[in-house]
Specification:
Helices cover 27% and strands 30% of the residues. It is α+β, with helices and mostly antiparallel strands and 88 residues long.
């Protein structure tokens, strides 16, 4: 079951600021994510007190912030280093 991933403007803006190496890593994790947002390598978890927001790990430093917007649709809200969690 493949999910449709929609990226927010904030996601695109912050993705553009990542290094080439980090961008490559994010893209590879997004491919896994599209197949299974709960894949163990993503270490996905709900962000407490945020309503319906979730975080997934690209690596130990980079996080993806996202939410479900439909049965098979996921909205990528942000990408960045671990401190992006402080915004949510």
């Amino acid at each position: 079951m493949k999910y449709i991933i929609i990226k927010s403007k904030t996601f695109d803006k912050h993705f553009a600021k990542l290094s080439k190496k980090d961008k490559t890593l994010v893209i590879s994790k997004l491919k896994i994510f599209a197949e299974s947002p709960l894949h163990p390598s993503l270490r996905t978890k709900h962000i407490q007190g945020s309503g319906g927001l979730f975080e997934a790990s690209v690596n130990m430093d980079i996080r993806l912030i996202w939410q479900y917007t439909g049965d098979k649709i996921i909205l990528m809200l942000d990408v960045g280093y671990h401190d992006i969690l402080n915004k949510f």
